[in-house]
Specification:
Strand content: 25-35%
Structural class: alpha+beta
Distance between the termini: 60 Å
Shape: elongated
Largest sheet: 4 strands, antiparallel
Radius of gyration: 19 Å
Number of helices: 2
């Protein structure tokens, strides 16, 4: 048991880190998708940066170091929204960047910290003309 304990500890730390990063990745993807959906169904086509930020922070409140944030302009959460036209459809594109907490690094396998970046593009409801508003 004494000889195996360092390996078991190593496996536990790796499993913990991987689980934390997987949870953060799923939450970041979900936050980008929810923000794009809420922005795309806005009736007038105006995409509000504060509404998009609010949607992202509501989705990310379950991950570490986001609870209590009120803006999406700096680390750990950065949100950008743009309006695009693809194949004749007006759409909104939401990019969410989330930086995780510093965890236990495993040299060569897992860094102690990860920066996750997800982009979701969704067509506007009724093909409204999209415009971003501060």
């Amino acid at each position: 048991m004494t000889l195996l304990m360092p390996w078991l500890l190593f496996l536990f730390v790796g499993t913990f880190d991987w689980g934390f990063f997987a949870h953060a990745l799923i939450s970041t993807e979900s936050a980008a998708r929810v923000a794009a959906l809420s922005a795309s169904i806005s009736g007038d086509g105006k995409v509000s940066a504060s509404a998009v930020c609010s949607s992202v922070l509501d989705e990310l409140k379950i991950v570490a170091n986001v609870n209590g944030l009120s803006s999406c302009s700096g680390t750990p959460v950065v949100v950008a929204s743009t309006c695009t036209t693809t194949a004749g459809l007006n759409s909104v594109q939401i990019a969410v960047t989330y930086q995780t907490l510093q965890l236990i690094p495993i040299p060569g396998l897992l860094n102690g910290q990860a920066t996750l970046y997800r982009v979701v593009q969704m067509p506007m409801k009724n093909n409204n003309v999209c415009s971003t508003v501060s």
